[in-house]
Amino acid sequence: MIKQAIIPLAGLGTRLLPLTSVFAKELLPINGKPGIEYILDECIEAGIKEVIFIISKKKLMIKKYFYNDKFYKDIIKRKKDPRIINEYKKILKYKKMIKFVFQDKPLGTGDAVLKTKKFIKGKFFLMLLPDDLIVKQNCSKAMITLHKKFKSSVMASMKVKEKEVSRWGIYNIKEKISTKNFIIKGVIEKPSIKQAPSNNAVIGRYILPKKIFNKLLKLKPGKDGEIHITDAIQSLINDNNKFIGHNFSGKYLDCGTMNGYINSTLEIAKIWKFVWLALDTLG
Ligand code: G1P
Questions:
Q1: In the chain, which residues have pLDDT < 70?
Q2: Which protein residue has the closest C-alpha to ligand 1 atom 3?
Q3: DSSP code at position 140
């Protein structure tokens, strides 16, 4: 059973400047709720019991967001506002399941994963990249179901435009399992159009085996001098470990770029407008 998830949060968020010059991008509100809470809700609904946040000193604001008890208690004592009480209860629920580890130098996603090595208990764990929101369907839940069936690693994926392959990890298919699931032959980090073996992009949800830590320990820096999780995955595939690419059913929202962030707000507002209208009709 997969009960632990890790979330790399030490990135500087330069693609969202100036918003991120003093603010953590994962706390930016998307339709009135910080992006990170969407990710936490996805984890909770998928049955995750513990989430490890990988932050840096520059992102301490994230820890503070979940550890501001005195502030809430003082306000609630003075003002018995039920909305604030509910929000505080929600924050407490999140806080109980979060652990923090530090990655002080931004040396890549693989390096961030390595920081969680001594905390991972099970044979497999889930990783979610907070720039990638997937709404309408719980992608992590669907991936955990697949993992249970095939006892293998799983990565979320979607087809992207050919001219955009250099923005993603790209994989090619060894074998089709069903319309949405494929056994992966190989994966390459951000290839040029010429190098790309396909246009199947890896999106930020991974079920990884604990043995990936040994690969990461031995890995030399790859593209742009960073330690990439993609390179460790390729090394595991070379050793005959099975990785499944899962074309998820939910809607993908890219929160890591300014245009994507603005669009995410609009898309989620649309979903809520639809919910409110439906509730209104029911009276
Ligand atoms: C990371 C991974 C990349 C993956 C992407 C998904 O890149 O390195 O393989 O396709 O996440 O969002 P980043 O977005 O951190 O540059």
A1: 283
A2: 169
A3: H
Please name the residue that has the structure tokens 């040994």. 214
Element (H, E) at 259: helix 258-282
Which residues neighbour 246 within 8 Å (Cβ) at sequence distance 6 or greater?
A: 139, 142, 143, 146, 154, 155, 156, 157, 180, 181
Q: How far apart (Å, rounded) are the C-alpha atoms in residues 182 and 247?
A: 9
- For the whole model, what pTM was predicted? 0.94
C-alpha dist (Å) from residue 163 to 4, 167, 199, 246? 35, 9, 9, 22
> pLDDT value at position 272?
78
At 244, the amino acid letter reads I
Q: Which of 159, 168, 190, 255 to mutate to test the pocket of ligand 1 (most atoms within 8 A of CB)?
A: 168
Radius of gyration of the chain (CA): 19
Which residues are 205's β-sheet partners?
128
For 251, other C-beta atoms within 10 Å of its C-beta total 14
Give the model's pLDDT for residue 273. Answer: 76
Kindly give the residue spans of alpha helices, DSSP state H, lying in 105-190: 109-114, 139-150
Pocket of ligand 1 (CB under 6 A): 109, 129, 131-132, 168-169, 189, 201-204, 228, 230
